[in-house]
Amino acid sequence: MFIATWIPGGPLPALVAGVASHLALDAIPHGDAGIGHWVHSSPNHITKLQRLLPMVFVDQILGAGVFFLLLSSPLFHSIGFWTLLAGAFGSILPDYLTGIRDLLPKPPRWLESIHRLHEKCHYRGKEHFTILTGLIFQSLLVGLFILISFRVI
Predict the structure, then answer these.
(1) DSSP state of 28
(2) Do the Cβ atoms of 4 and 98 come closer than 8 Å?
(3) Ordered alpha helix ranges (H), the chain
(4) Which end of the chain, N or C, is less packed with Cβ atoms under 10 Å?
């Protein structure tokens, strides 16, 4: 949503910028490597779903809450709703596409290509965070950006 305020052209450029920002931010360690390993080490498809769906549900509820909170920020009043929604959706689209790929028994080639690109963008060094410290780090960053959007800082 922040990037959508700087990118001219409406929803499509905001969507593309959201995707690009997701891929760029995946290059920064943020504590989710352990979660990915836990999900992908599932012995079968049912176990993978049992592990994945509750996390996706909580993640989406929290993301929607942040999105609607930010809509009330004065920083975003001059930007159209559809542009902000496109930017926000673009920022989660790579994870959705990876999730869809993981759920399909035989994903199409184009989806595999997108998944490989997404994987290449992830940080590959020593993970600096545990799952818990990664969640704390990400929560603090989201809180900071909320404060900035309301010009509290």
Answers:
(1) S
(2) no
(3) 11-25, 33-40, 45-71, 81-103, 109-121, 131-149
(4) C
Q: Residue 9: left (phi > 0), alpha (psi -120 to 50), or beta?
A: left
Residue with tokens 């965070």: 129
- C-alpha closest to that of 118 among 13, 23, 16, 3: 23
For the chain, the domains span: 3-149
Say how many Å lie between the first and final Cα of the chain, rounded.
18
Residue labelled with tokens 């790579």: 94
Separation of alpha carbons 16 and 32, rounded Å: 23
3-state secondary structure of 27: coil
3-state secondary structure of 41: coil
